[in-house]
Write a structure and sequence with these properties.
Helices cover 54% and strands 13% of the residues. By secondary structure, it is an alpha/beta fold. It holds the Pfam family GerE.
Length: 216
């Protein structure tokens, strides 16, 4: 089955460019478009996309609030990929903290756009880990310190979280720890559950904001 994508951006040329790039791939299908975050929830419920590629700044409802609204009101919500002009942007970090799974630069090359959609859809690796580190260093608020302290991660779960923060995939973590991929998936699931994180992006942000992993 192809990865289905909903495009949300107030610039028609951006949507057209993303559509052209993504629909050139046999395993990706663009199922709809919207010009503002206010239209996202009904379209998500109607189209059930796997990924929403959403501009972070829009006139009526921006990508941050639209992300919060989708995750709050939609059962089994899609992955959310924030589309932005500048990567070192507090809006991007707030969108990730709100629950977005990653971000995509509007100036990205076609291969990077396709890879970002696939990676976010698969959900077993962190998109642009170095950029997330930089954002955490600039905008992290330390609000996750108590939550991570109370999570009581085991030694192995803590090791997995550190490797997740470095951007390693499940397969790469398995190779580093000399365990099976299914074992890593079990540990990742336990980390997410203990931290109350939707996915590994939110878990990694919590690790940075708590000081568990240094964003340097």
């Amino acid at each position: 089955m192809p990865v289905t994508v909903l495009l949300v951006d107030d610039e028609p040329l951006v949507r057209a460019g993303l559509r052209a790039v993504l629909e050139a791939q046999p395993d990706i299908e663009v199922v709809g478009e919207a010009a503002d975050g206010a239209a996202v929830i009904p379209l998500v419920r109607q189209l059930r996309p796997d990924v929403v590629a959403m501009d972070v700044r829009m006139p009526l409802l921006d990508g941050i609030e639209a992300t919060r609204a989708v995750l709050r009101t939609v059962a089994d919500p899609p992955k959310i990929l924030v589309v932005t002009t500048f990567e070192n942007d507090e809006y991007v970090y707030e969108a990730l903290r709100a629950g977005a799974d990653g971000f995509l630069l509007k100036r990205a090359r076609p291969a990077e756009i396709v890879n970002a959609v696939r990676l976010v859809a698969e959900g077993d690796s962190l998109l642009f880990p170095a950029a997330v580190r930089a954002l955490a260093s600039s905008y992290g608020k330390g609000s996750a310190r108590t939550a991570l302290a109370e999570a009581a991660l085991t030694e192995r779960e803590a090791a997995v979280l550190r490797l997740m923060a470095r951007g390693l995939s499940n397969a790469e973590i398995a190779g580093r720890l000399i365990v099976g991929t299914e074992t890593v998936k079990t540990h990742v699931s336990a980390v997410l559950a203990k931290l109350g994180a939707r996915d590994r992006t939110q878990a990694v942000i919590a690790a940075y904001e708590s000081g568990f992993v240094a964003p340097s």
